[in-house]
């Protein structure tokens, strides 16, 4: 029986990849889920596991070939070639508890692995361990928390037992499917932990040697060969100093800029700091989420022709309607009636008239979306995230309020999945909850528009020739001037203003 190895889904908007490295050759025995090759896209590196055990057959896509999603990479022939490896592995596992515990009554060894991190995410950073070596843990009890550039992932205990070894310490970078720790189950679990803790002091001495026997990432080795760099010239950021592909890119960039730096006056990256000031500073490494936020926002400024137009809206009618129906709304729907549902409905209404604000650029094409997946920017303790409410244009006020409440709670608890933050077509950002009177929001690429809400403030306004106090809010629409003209942007903002100042227009589709 022949099993086909095909290119997996590469992530949103990614359609092709390059075969970087083959870890197996024709005739090699492979186990199920063993890594066969590594693919590189313009965003991430993707490892391709074996879909079944067997013997490596034909390699269809060679190293350096460009392949599309679901393209055939290789074949695996069913056979007994992989069986001996698996048996040897199981024998080694069976011997391991006896060796560490010194007795055949030790519990079984259980590996704690990195879970699936989400589409297009191949690595994470260990942010916090909730347990230490020797601690007893219950099944599904949280052991540690991983941080990717998009979400935080909690790792539960696969079974009850004792934590005997932590392989990936806090701050270490781990790959999807990698090993995080080892547990012991059964009666021998408690005995295994002290033996491991006695051996622990020897670990620093082993790591303190000058020799480096850590295997670098295959993609990094290939990149070093292409750029003519040796491993000694690259500072690894991976676990135990493992050199990653991005480390090679940094080293190459530094080498290229060195001649220019020597001929030009040196410019310090930060101003000199006195010893007294330095002692009062605190240096904290940016989280992966914060690094991604910084990169995406700067990329947005560098890519889009971003412009912001402003208007103001009289919130009198919306506030009156909300006060009149909020109790009845809560009683019937079980959720409070807020302002966000009004703004969401008003934006969906305006996007139908000005569809280019709901579009995106793909190369030399403009992709118009005949639906609205509304992103709601949400501040969390770890940074800004944008959960997406899908098909918001077909939802009522109650459904929108429930979705916003649920997504917001999940965002603050770090429970959002990657899928819940992808695919948005337009975004609303409410800086008013923090007291902002006016700001210019930055686009959330590849979207072409984002609406900024602000603080509601009583201001004197001229109404029918008289000066009266009105609850006013400044609105800001940032848009990509490459596909949205000034007329379209202003029209969109005026339609939002009109819908909010007279909510009946939403019912009449005016």
UniProtKB/TrEMBL annotation:
Organism domain of life: Bacteria
Residues in Lipoyl-binding domain copies: 2-77, 109-184
Start-end of Basic and acidic residues biased regions: 83-94
Composition skew (Low complexity), residue ranges: 95-111, 193-207, 257-275
Pathway: Amino-acid degradation; L-lysine degradation via saccharopine pathway; glutaryl-CoA from L-lysine: step 6/6
Cellular-component GO terms for this entry: cytosol; oxoglutarate dehydrogenase complex
GO term, biological process aspect, one: tricarboxylic acid cycle
Stored Pfam families: 2-oxoacid_dh, Biotin_lipoyl, E3_binding
Gene Ontology terms, MF aspect: dihydrolipoyllysine-residue succinyltransferase activity
InterPro entries found in the cross-reference section: 2-oxoacid_dehydrogenase (IPR050537), 2-oxoacid_DH_actylTfrase (IPR001078), Biotin_lipoyl (IPR000089), CAT-like_dom_sf (IPR023213), E3-bd_dom_sf (IPR036625), PSBD (IPR004167), Single_hybrid_motif (IPR011053), SucB (IPR006255)
Enzyme Commission no: 2.3.1.61
Reactions that this protein is recorded to catalyse: N(6)-[(R)-dihydrolipoyl]-L-lysyl-[protein] + succinyl-CoA = N(6)-[(R)-S(8)-succinyldihydrolipoyl]-L-lysyl-[protein] + CoA
Renumbered residue ranges of the record's region Disordered: 80-112, 193-241, 257-283
Domain Peripheral subunit-binding (PSBD): 215-252
Uppermost EC category: transferase
SUPFAM superfamilies, per database record: CoA-dependent acyltransferases, Peripheral subunit-binding domain of 2-oxo acid dehydrogenase complex, Single hybrid motif
Cofactors demanded by this protein: (R)-lipoate
Keywords for the protein's UniProt record, in alphabetical order: Acyltransferase, Lipoyl, Transferase, Tricarboxylic acid cycle
Function: E2 component of the 2-oxoglutarate dehydrogenase (OGDH) complex which catalyzes the second step in the conversion of 2-oxoglutarate to succinyl-CoA and CO(2).
Family: Belongs to the 2-oxoacid dehydrogenase family.
Assembly and interaction partners: Forms a 24-polypeptide structural core with octahedral symmetry. Part of the 2-oxoglutarate dehydrogenase (OGDH) complex composed of E1 (2-oxoglutarate dehydrogenase), E2 (dihydrolipoamide succinyltransferase) and E3 (dihydrolipoamide dehydrogenase); the complex contains multiple copies of the three enzymatic components (E1, E2 and E3).
Name of the protein described by the UniProt record: Dihydrolipoyllysine-residue succinyltransferase component of 2-oxoglutarate dehydrogenase complex
Name of the gene encoding the protein in the UniProt record: odhB
């Amino acid at each position: 029986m022949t099993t086909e190895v095909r290119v997996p889904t590469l992530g949103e908007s990614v359609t092709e990849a390059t075969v970087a490295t083959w870890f197996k050759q024709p005739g090699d025995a492979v186990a199920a889920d063993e890594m066969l090759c590594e693919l590189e896209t313009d965003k991430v590196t993707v490892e391709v596991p074996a879909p079944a055990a067997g013997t490596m057959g034909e390699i269809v896509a060679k190293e350096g070939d460009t392949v599309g999603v679901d393209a055939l990479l290789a074949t695996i022939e069913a056979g007994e070639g992989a069986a001996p490896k698996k048996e040897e592995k199981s024998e080694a596992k069976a011997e391991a508890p006896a060796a560490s515990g010194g007795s055949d009554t030790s519990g079984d060894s259980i590996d704690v692995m990195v879970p699936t991190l989400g589409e297009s995410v191949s690595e994470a950073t260990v942010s916090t361990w909730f347990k230490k070596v020797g601690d007893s843990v219950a099944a599904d009890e949280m052991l540690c928390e991983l941080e990717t550039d998009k979400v935080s992932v909690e790792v539960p205990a696969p079974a009850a037992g004792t934590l005997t070894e932590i392989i990936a310490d806090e701050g270490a970078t781990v790959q999807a499917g990698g090993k995080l720790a080892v547990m012991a189950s059964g009666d021998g679990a408690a005995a295994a932990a002290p033996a491991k803790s006695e051996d622990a002091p020897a670990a620093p001495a082993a790591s303190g040697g000058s020799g480096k026997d850590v295997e670098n990432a295959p993609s990094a080795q290939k990149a070093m060969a292409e750029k003519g760099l040796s491993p000694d010239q690259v500072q690894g950021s991976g676990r135990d100093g493992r050199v990653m592909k991005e480390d090679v890119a940094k080293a190459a960039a530094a080498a290229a800029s060195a001649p220019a730096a020597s001929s030009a006056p040196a410019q310090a990256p930060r101003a000199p700091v006195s010893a007294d000031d330095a002692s009062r500073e605190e240096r904290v490494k940016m989280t992966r989420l914060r690094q991604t936020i910084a990169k995406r926002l700067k990329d947005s400024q560098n890519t889009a022709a971003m412009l912001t137009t402003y208007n103001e809206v009289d919130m009198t009618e919306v506030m009156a309607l909300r006060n009149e129906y909020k109790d009845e709304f809560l009683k019937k729907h079980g959720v409070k009636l807020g302002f966000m549902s009004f703004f969401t409905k008003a934006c969906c209404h305006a996007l139908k008239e000005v569809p280019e604000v709901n579009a995106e650029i793909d190369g030399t094409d403009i992709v118009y979306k005949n639906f609205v997946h509304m992103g709601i920017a949400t501040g969390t303790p770890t940074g800004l995230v944008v959960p997406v409410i899908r098909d918001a244009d077909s939802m009522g006020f109650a459904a929108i309020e429930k979705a916003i409440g649920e997504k917001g709670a999940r965002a603050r608890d770090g429970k959002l999945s990657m899928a819940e933050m992808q695919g948005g077509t337009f975004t609303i950002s409410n800086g008013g909850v923090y007291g902002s009177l006016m700001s210019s929001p930055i686009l959330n690429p590849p979207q072409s528009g984002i609406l900024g809400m602000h603080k509601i403030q009583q201001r004197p306004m001229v109404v029918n020739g008289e000066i009266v106090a009105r609850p006013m809010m400044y609105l800001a629409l940032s848009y990509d001037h490459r596909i949205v003209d000034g007329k379209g942007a202003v029209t969109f903002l005026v339609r939002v203003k009109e819908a909010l100042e007279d909510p009946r227009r939403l019912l009449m589709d005016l």
